[in-house]
Amino acid sequence: MIVRLLLLLALFCPLTARAQGDPPLIVDLSNHLVAITTGFTGATVLLFGAVESEGDLVVVVRGPVQAEMVRRKEPVLGIWINRGKAILAEVPAYYQVAASRPLDEIAGPAVLDRHQIGLDHLAFLVRRKDRKQEDTDYRQALLRLKVAAGLYGAAVEPVSFVGRHLFRTEMTFPANVPTGTYSVEVYLMRRGEVVSAQTTPLIVSKIGVGAEVFDFANHQAALYGLSAVLLAVAAGWLGAVAFRRS
Description:
Immunoglobulin-like, alpha+beta, 33% helix, 2 domains, 6 helices, six-stranded mixed sheet, flat, four-stranded antiparallel sheet
């Protein structure tokens, strides 16, 4: 099915070029919804597309931005305690980059900084309460934690060309991927500058019974807590009755 879609894109792209001059990128996803169910162990989404003009392709997948707290611990009398902390804002919950070549061969640091392409070029707002460390120390600590959790890609994944104009890459989402609206950004670069770009949304959402329990726990916290207590009491009582009968 993917091969058929790529062939359709190849046929469509020249028509777009003749109608509009400089053709835009044509990009789509194999699935615009990553559904998290009870047995969810991760997912892979295929990004594919076509482009008429030559150049380098860069794909950036960003999760919804949020604030993160990072704490610094030190050993005191053999016990590790918190000695400093920082709150980092504008942090993507998920971040992955794919490219047709190494990023430093595609564009310079100024362009990569402007579009926040690559881990070294992500811009966080750091509010630090620690005189012994610098903002960059907390920034690097956050990146290490995200990479260790599988939410940030430590390496740039490949973008493969099928012929001269068709391309594809795979985006992998771990089992602990946060829910929300993700943006999939595709850049066509030439001579170190962005000449065309397209952004496609991707939804990561809980579905099924797990989603209903999650919504109930978040929107009706008091009732959820009471229900959990009652279920625990009922389970204990039934267990006691079954034990006495045996």
